[in-house]
Protein backbone atom coordinates (compact mmCIF):
# COMPACT_ATOMS: atom_id res chain seq x y z
CA UNK A 1 0.00 0.00 0.00
CA UNK A 2 1.02 3.58 -0.48
CA UNK A 3 -0.33 4.84 2.85
CA UNK A 4 2.22 4.77 5.68
CA UNK A 5 1.83 5.70 9.34
CA UNK A 6 4.71 7.56 10.95
CA UNK A 7 5.37 8.75 14.48
CA UNK A 8 6.95 12.20 14.21
CA UNK A 9 9.03 14.42 16.51
CA UNK A 10 6.70 17.38 15.82
CA UNK A 11 3.38 18.03 14.11
CA UNK A 12 3.81 18.13 10.33
CA UNK A 13 0.71 19.17 8.43
CA UNK A 14 2.16 19.35 4.93
CA UNK A 15 4.79 17.78 2.68
CA UNK A 16 7.50 20.39 3.30
CA UNK A 17 7.24 20.11 7.08
CA UNK A 18 7.25 16.31 6.98
CA UNK A 19 10.23 16.06 4.65
CA UNK A 20 12.25 18.21 7.09
CA UNK A 21 11.66 15.70 9.91
CA UNK A 22 11.23 12.43 8.00
CA UNK A 23 14.66 11.04 9.00
CA UNK A 24 13.83 11.69 12.67
CA UNK A 25 10.43 9.98 12.32
CA UNK A 26 9.60 6.31 12.84
CA UNK A 27 7.64 4.38 10.23
CA UNK A 28 5.17 2.17 12.08
CA UNK A 29 3.57 0.40 9.14
CA UNK A 30 1.15 0.38 6.24
CA UNK A 31 -2.39 1.69 6.62
CA UNK A 32 -4.73 -0.68 4.79
CA UNK A 33 -8.11 0.72 5.92
CA UNK A 34 -9.46 4.15 6.72
CA UNK A 35 -12.38 3.50 9.03
CA UNK A 36 -10.96 1.37 11.83
CA UNK A 37 -7.43 -0.03 11.86
CA UNK A 38 -4.64 -0.90 14.23
CA UNK A 39 -0.93 -1.47 13.76
CA UNK A 40 1.62 -3.21 15.92
CA UNK A 41 4.45 -0.89 16.88
CA UNK A 42 7.74 -2.42 15.72
CA UNK A 43 10.30 -3.39 18.37
CA UNK A 44 12.64 -0.56 19.31
CA UNK A 45 10.06 2.20 18.81
CA UNK A 46 8.67 3.90 21.93
CA UNK A 47 5.45 5.72 21.09
CA UNK A 48 5.95 8.10 24.03
CA UNK A 49 9.11 9.44 22.38
CA UNK A 50 7.03 11.00 19.59
CA UNK A 51 4.51 13.79 20.18
CA UNK A 52 2.71 13.43 16.84
CA UNK A 53 1.49 10.95 14.23
CA UNK A 54 1.06 11.28 10.46
CA UNK A 55 -0.31 9.28 7.53
CA UNK A 56 1.81 9.77 4.42
CA UNK A 57 0.60 9.01 0.87
CA UNK A 58 3.82 7.71 -0.62
CA UNK A 59 2.70 7.64 -4.28
CA UNK A 60 2.00 11.38 -4.36
CA UNK A 61 4.28 12.53 -1.53
CA UNK A 62 1.43 14.04 0.41
CA UNK A 63 0.27 14.22 4.02
CA UNK A 64 -3.19 12.67 4.36
CA UNK A 65 -3.67 13.61 8.01
CA UNK A 66 -1.63 14.40 11.10
CA UNK A 67 -2.35 14.86 14.79
CA UNK A 68 -0.65 15.58 18.08
CA UNK A 69 -0.63 12.73 20.60
CA UNK A 70 -1.63 13.29 24.22
CA-CA gap between termini: 28 Å
Low-confidence stretches: none
- Number of H/I helices: 1
> What is the rounded Rg?
11 Å
Written as H for each helix and E for each strand, in order along the chain, the element string is: EHEEE
Mean pLDDT across residues: 95
Q: Looking at the chains present, what oligomeric state does this protein adopt? A: single chain
Largest sheet, strands/sense/barrel: 4 strands, antiparallel
Q: Give the tally of β-strands.
A: 4
Helix content: 10-25%
The coarse overall form would be globular
SSE-based structural type: mainly beta
Strand order of the largest sheet: 2-1-3-4
How much beta, percentage-wise?
Answer: 25-35%
Please render the helix and strand layout as text.
Layout: E1 3-8, H1 15-21, E2 26-30, E3 52-57, E4 62-68
Antiparallel strand pairs: 1-2, 1-3, 3-4
Structure commentary:
This protein has a 4-stranded antiparallel beta sheet, with helices on one face. The protein is globular. Helix content is 10%, strand content 34%. The longest helix is centred in the first third of the chain and has 7 residues.
Amino acid sequence: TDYLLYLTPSLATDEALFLKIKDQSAQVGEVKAFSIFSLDVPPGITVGDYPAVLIWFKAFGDVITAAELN
